[in-house]
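Ticket #425: bound-state structure for zinc ion.
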Amino acid sequence: MVLSLKITDLAAREILDCRGNPTVQVDVIVDNDILGRADVPAGRSTGANEAHELRDGGERFQGMGVTKAVENVLKEIKPAVVGMKVTEQRALDQRLIALDGTPNKSRLGANAILGVSLAAARAAATALKTPLYKYVNLNAHVLPVPLLNYINGGEHASNDLEFQEFCIFPVGAQTFKEALEIGSAVYEELRAIIIDKYGKIAANVGDEGGFAPPIVKVREALDNLVLAVKRSGFEEKIVYGLDCAATHIYDPETNKYTLEGEELSTDELLGFYKELLKTYPIASMEDPFSEDDIDGFVKGTQELGIQIVGDDFFCTDPDRIRERAKLGAGNALLWKVNQIGTLSEALDAAEMAYRNNMGVMVSERSGETEDPMIADLVVGINAGQIKTGAQVRSERVAKYNRLLQIEEELGDTAVYAGQNFKIPF
Ligand code: PGA
Ligand code: ZN
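RESOLUTION: The complex was predicted; output attached.
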């Protein structure tokens, strides 16, 4: 049968994410029987400039329900996209943006819009019998270095550690598969260290599967991680990454950051980072300053000499990236599809980053489902780095397992980004 590749139906429903909060799942049906399905992720430590996630409010699910977003898919989006060619991703996304009509997708909800956008890409790939990563890019071949988030703090954990994520980068592995083996060895050593130092209750994990021990000091968290790496025997193959998520320790009224009981100015916080870099081989820092501290990002990028990743700072927004990259603020983009709300705009954001000599790190949200979509997307855009938590919770494991499949499928053409994670080729 010759396919028309036309969207013939849409379905949507409220499902649950890994925190038990509702989120949107969308089905795009092509030629009456080809299904593309996608789940929408949700953040907790969100930036002020993210596309708007529509929640119901009221009492159900503590106001977190998404029945309005689901209804918007069924009542408004469906009639507008049925009949469109599913392979016309850009035209589809533009129609969704126009239908919404607001700058931040607040009318229909970015969660409604993104669900349709991602499900369409998957339906198109399925219809064409192509893996999604190849549908996104026929030159897809780079397997990312996983940024394994093993100690959780900030808004992702119930401890008093201010920085949100303490990660290892197995840059010295030869393959993605080996990177996970190294990661697992370190994780198990870390578990033993944490139980030994803080008791077994401290081995409970935070939102992204990292441990959340009762630590306050950044250096204490890093020392534990360094010790675990040492004991694993993989010291030579590992560097470190932090997500400071500094928007959430910044007070716009005093213009200060709160860290370990002190109030710090931008310059003082920069000084704190410089001292850290003298002790630890940290290769990457995400949001070391708050989302509007351009001065901090410029100085940090110039003076720290490592990868400075903008998460809340760029919000995966091509315009923000263009403006801020010009100033030399940040040298890598944290790429989260739901910060912008359509696949095409997210692809624009990645391209904008590459054109400005920036790295791109593809990222999950802390609220994920078992949908492994970003595993295909990270290979699809040859980004070279992925951040999707620790490999001990199924919503994270789903991404790692999909990457293992992709590495196998690509065979000899697969290249593990390794030391070149920022610019893989
Ligand atoms: P979020 O956190 O998904 O809760 O926003 C992830 C991050 O800050 O990188
Ligand atoms: Zn972040």
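RESOLUTION NOTES: The pocket of 2-phosphoglycolic acid (ligand 1) is lined by residues 43-46, 164, 243, 245, 311, 363, 365-366 (CB under 6 Å).
TICKET STATUS: resolved
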